[in-house]
Give the backbone structure.
Amino acid sequence: MGRALELAWRGWGRVAPNPLVGAVVVRNGAIVGEGWHAEFGERHAEPAALAMAGAAARGATLYVTLEPCNHTGKQPPCADALIAAGVARVVVAMPDPNPEAQGGALRLRAAGIPVEIGCRGEEAAVQNAIFLHRFTEPRRPFLALKLATTLDGRIADHGGRSRWISGGEAREYVHWLRAGFDAIGVGGHTARTDDASLTVRGPVEPRVAPQRVVFDRLAELPSTLALVKTAGQVPTTLVTTLSASLTRTEPLEAAGVRVIRAATLAVALQGLHEEGVGSILVEGGGRLAGRLLGEGLVDRYYWIQSPLWLGDSGIPAIAELPGTSLVEAERWQVVDRRALGQDTLLVVDREPCSPAS
């Protein structure tokens, strides 16, 4: 199953809104076939693994990270493919929460094939957190917060300079990360200060490039920003308040920026969801991060910590976050930690990712 989970990641940025899925065929203790869902609308992981295994699939065990589908969509049912191949046993990490596709386990068992569900299911759920979110909290996008900070929790120096706190390996990871989200978001101050393109320039070319979202309560984006100038090429949305001045928003709309006015961040996220944004990666700044955390709107936090200090004059990574007591504080769940060159990545979820029941 570990190999199947590893293979599933190869679909990152290419299969959404479908889930990441990997599959491995094992016969007599040896891997004879493996596959993954590589492209939206194309062959699923199980048929890919069966094709590699060929005749060796008969009597073998298939390990797969998600319950085989039991419906005809862009591809035929994977459950039927497993039955036809003569697989003797199927081990599944987690059940499929999609009511249109689920039922593969029942179909296989009805054909006399034993199915075990739950092997490394929590890992599979963490991997497919964006996909699972569609069925657990369908009214707003899955929201991940990513911040690169110093050891003392600063995202920029006293002059607002943040390039580069993190090293090259960490920045490459961020571009890989961006490829799997529908949108990349920043606060208005960050957009004005960094004038970043917020595009993907890493090893994965996303099937659909993420759109850009700027959260700016006063709609103070100048038309000279690269974000605004390229709004005609890369979909760009401004999220602002109901009271934002028309004299500021109209020039932006004329440049191709879509404007969403909302009374709260929660309502704004619902508006983004209605426009087709199923996931968003927010990359700062500090006030936006604090507001999102304070309102319970962050599902996952990617923290890249770099080995330097900026001191009290540096800009805090998280601001305007209401205080709480140690007893009442939320304790988030660690789902990943690793080195990225000289930097350290910590990934935590607000709530435990659990496989669908």
Remarks:
- The longest strand covers residues 142-149.
- The longest helix spans residues 168-178.
